[in-house]
Amino acid sequence: MNIITISREFGSGGRELGKRLADHLGYDYYDSEIIAAVAKNSGMDADYIRTLGDDGWQQYPITFRSTLGGTLYTQSNKVQLLLEQKRVIEGIAALGKDCIIVGRNADVLLKKYQPFNIFVCAETETKLKRSLERAPEGEQLTEKQLRRKLKKIDKARAQTRALLSSSPWGQRKEYHLTVNTTGWEIKKMVPAVADFAMAWFGRME
Amino acid sequence: MNIITISREFGSGGRELGKRLADHLGYDYYDSEIIAAVAKNSGMDADYIRTLGDDGWQQYPITFRSTLGGTLYTQSNKVQLLLEQKRVIEGIAALGKDCIIVGRNADVLLKKYQPFNIFVCAETETKLKRSLERAPEGEQLTEKQLRRKLKKIDKARAQTRALLSSSPWGQRKEYHLTVNTTGWEIKKMVPAVADFAMAWFGRME
Q: Which of A77, A110, B123, B141 could form a Cys-Cys staple with B182, CB 3.0–4.6 A?
């Protein structure tokens, strides 16, 4: 079984790369599927969980102040969410099928399966442009607000990872490949990224 | 003309990757050739310059204390060396031939040519093992000394780069691709790295 994990800066196109890579390789693909599964398991509403997702952890584990009102009840939902995500990701791996998992610290959670771990980054201007093009229905952020959102979400991702692992988020040594999408049409890099992952999985041959 | 630059942590195998990539692509290859050329231009002895090379800049530009005796004369040789390296690298680009340049901040110096810029890293244990296997004739360092040497050389590279550019050494956004050689037999990743570079140069087609 080959597992490819993709960690990414918000707005860098990691999700698109993951989906295209899965299509290219014929692998199963997971990201929002995970959230839905978590929702199902935890009995929480998928949209509500999406608001928690990677992006709702700014203050965690530094403090228990919640981004959703600061009640310990909400906080406990967050802990429950991470725990369910962990179970779901382990469940996906247990299926034994080749797959690509975007986000959710799958590289850390599935370490024993020796996944090929990719980190996707881009220059801030690239991420701003991408985020504007893909803004959720009705989201109207100023550029300043959007810049703040980018930082906030990546900080949240770094902190969630810090909770699960001593391996720092985004540090080059923690991934097999770090890809900068600035200047790329992402679909054009897909075959090369796929070649790289296949060379890794086949390196002992 | 396609230019591929390789920056690397000491002991990560960046030089081997560069040489193999050049063989694979049929590109010209430069690293020690640059030193020799500099030596020729500057009238300094190649071995002497090698001792200055990337690796002799620990204190520069932080202080003028020289690693070779602290005379301004020696220091002026270092400035001269960087200047000559710059001229030589610009001269290589001016040849207009596809090439790979390892080290010497070619990615910064040749920015206007839009090179494909690779950074090569590895886990410390990997670099220690590699450095031991490839230690210069007669070098007998303890592991502790070798660990110190790794840090010292990379610090020197970061400082030399800081002298030439505001783009931080090793920062993921500053390169197109960051490759971790840990766990690889480097020759096995060469075709994928080549594909990646070719996809970059061909991305507008």
A: B123
